[in-house]
Amino acid sequence: MRDDARHEHGWALVSVLWIVMALSLLATATLTLTSITYRMERKALERDRIDGALDAGVVRAVLGIEAPDLSDRWRVDGVPQQFVFDDFNLSVSIQDELGRFDLNVVDSSTLHALLTTEQVPQDQIDTLVDRILDWRNPSDLSRLHGATSADYAAAGLPYHPRHGPYQSVDELRLVLGITPELFERIRPALTVYTKNTMIDPTYATREALLALHAGDAGVVDSILNARNSGGLAGVADPSISLAGRTYSVTVDTEHDGRGFERYAVVMLTGDSKRPYLTLAWK
User: Fold this and answer.
1) Selection from 98, 99, 174 nearest residue 132 by Cα
2) How far apart are CA 46 and CA 70, in angstroms?
3) Using CB atoms within 10 A as the burial measure, which of 61, 111, 158, 263 is most buried?
4) pTM to 2 decimal places
């Protein structure tokens, strides 16, 4: 009986130890889960703060475009301006889209000039220009150096030309032969929002100006230097209505060693109740 009693006491002790161990593991798991949840929630709150600051940068840019006092107007030629919101240092760049060539109406000679200034080999320029134009061509008939749907299929691509207007400049990435590197070089000169055949050199990007002036960097530098030397250089013209004018806004900031960006395209409406429409947001 004594042996049985000792045996039962032994099992009871083991059971208690198992229960204590289980409770300890459960407590550790709960603590770990709570800690992870806290960190996730804190990161989510921080990201909300960052997003809020980036969004504020876009709103501040819109206010700066057509500020009643001309001295308070922000430049719309892509030159960055600094803005602090909620302790975040924001760099805000506004670009009047009339300072870029519209992909849906730009002609072959302008595209030739643009690709030439970006040092694309001459034996590739005709091909790329025709393919860019073929993408927006309503029919599948290609130009001399262009590409049809069959050419895209032969290249192993799972899509074919839109045969309609470009919906975004990013769509240019899909054109056969446009490499990521080339796209990044010509992207600043292009838009899809103006429907104008020409650009406004008052606010044009450097890349667009180079195409406009046949790659003459000296002329372009003179234009940019003159623009930067004026007191109100680069701001929206106060003598004209800005309703219907489209601007791209890029807001950048850093937090904990990481970079964050908001990109938006807005169209001013002239309506005080709804001063702008958002055409793109990312």
Assistant:
1) 174
2) 35
3) 61
4) 0.83
| Residues 55/262, Cβ–Cβ less than 8 Å | yes
Q: Cα–chain-centroid distance for residue 149?
A: 29
Q: Are 256 and 43 in contact (CB under 8 A)?
A: no
CA atoms within 13 A on the CB side of 247: 31
Alpha-carbon distances of 177 from 114, 122, 138, 157, rounded to whole Å: 16, 14, 20, 12
Residue 244 CA: distances (Å) to CA of 6, 69, 98? 92, 21, 11
Angle between helices 108-117 and 122-136 (to 10 degrees): 140
Q: Which two tokens mark 7?
A: 């045996």
Q: How far is residue 3's CA from residue 39's CA, in Å, rounded to a whole number?
A: 53
Phi, psi of 276 (to 5 degrees): -150, 155
| pLDDT for res 20 | 67
Torsion of CA 113, 115, 116, 122, to 10 degrees: -120
Q: How far is CA 171 from the centre of its chain?
A: 13
The answer to whether the beta carbons of residues 113 and 215 sit under 8 Å apart is yes
- Residues of the chain predicted below pLDDT 70: 1-17, 20, 22, 25-27, 29-40, 231
Residue 21 is encoded by which pair of tokens?
């161990």
- Asked if 174 contacts 67 with a C-beta cutoff of 8 angstroms, the reply is no
Tokens of 59: 């709103």
What is the identity of the amino acid at 51?
D
Contact 207, 213 (CB under 8 A): no
- The amino acid occupying position 270 is G
Please provide the DSSP assignment of 143-173 as one string: -TT---HHHHHHTT-S----SS--SSGGGGG
Superfamily of domain 101-198: EpsJ-like (1.10.40.60)
Residue 248 CB coordination number (10 Å) = 23
By C-alpha distance, which of 39, 99, 84, 92 is closest to 65?
Answer: 92
